[in-house]
Design a protein that fits this description.
Number of helices: 9
Oligomer: single chain
Radius of gyration: 24 Å
Largest sheet: 7 strands, mixed
CATH architecture of the largest domain: Roll
CATH superfamily of the largest domain: FAS1 domain
Distance between the termini: 94 Å
Order of helices and strands: HHHEHHEEEEEEEHHEHHEEEEEE
Strand content: 15-25%
CATH class of the largest domain: Mainly Beta
Number of strands: 15
Shape: elongated
Number of domains: 2
Length: about 325
Amino acid sequence: MLRTHLFLLIAMLAMALVSCKKDDKDVLPTIASIAVTNADFSTLEGAAIQGGVAVVLSNPNPNDPSGDYTVFAPNNAAFARLGLNNESDLAVLDRAFLTNTLLYHVSNGNLKGGDIKPDRTSGSALGPVRRFIARGSDNYINGSKILATDVQAQNGTVHVIDKVLLATGADIVQSALALTQAKVFVVPELTFLVEAVLYAELAGALTASPGSPSFTVFAPTDAAFKQLGVDLGVSLNVPADIRKLPKDVVTAVLLNHVIADGGKFTSEMNGGNVAPLGGTALTLGAFNNGTLTVKGNGNSTAANMVIPDVLTTNGVVHVIDRVLLP
């Protein structure tokens, strides 16, 4: 009788342990809940709601046998780099672009921190892949530093990053056009750059086609071109004013912003000189907190990166605050 009771007790304990293991995952918060309950993800929470992915990340993944997602989650400081300091600031973004940006942070399955290794890639729910890059003792996904790994959720895993991942799903020219047509920011941007590219007849060279090269492009903002006008004593108030400048001068200046190096993220840049298509070396500053300065030979002041690490289908674009002069 004693042996029978002992056997039953052991069996009950074994069943309890199995039950606990089964329920461990059930008691974890969902990925969406992690954002809701962690104050450092409050902007991400607002973005997920506005972008329509909060409900998706509250449930199991129907597109993967594991039922899991992997999310690279930008913290509040990552959004603040883009001037997005709270939920209301997200209104400057086109909603479709916001949704696509969030999907670029998500992938199917459960990618653990131990599987994040240099020179590997990871697909995304948006489509474009992400690259894993090592810089010293730190790991990056594209140009974003991975701050923490393996935050476990009921429906997957969260890794924390310090910059918002950006991908357009289009080539350099089409990506710039999207900015001018309010398909990224509600207020158009890069309108002067697009006008300059059309005037110099360089759109074809920067359009993706089979076998075409990939580039690193430094893209000056509209404010940068207006400042150039002030510096040159020429009135550049609207994009069409670019055509007041000699075409060969505009062409030479634009080529000074393009490097045929396959397209590099900030995490892959190491300072020093780089050779643009224009031929006059650009000087990169030291890598600092995920960005670098860049200076043309004809500049007295270096340009800062306003929006670094935008992946396109034929390279990487870094939006800068100054036109780079040969």
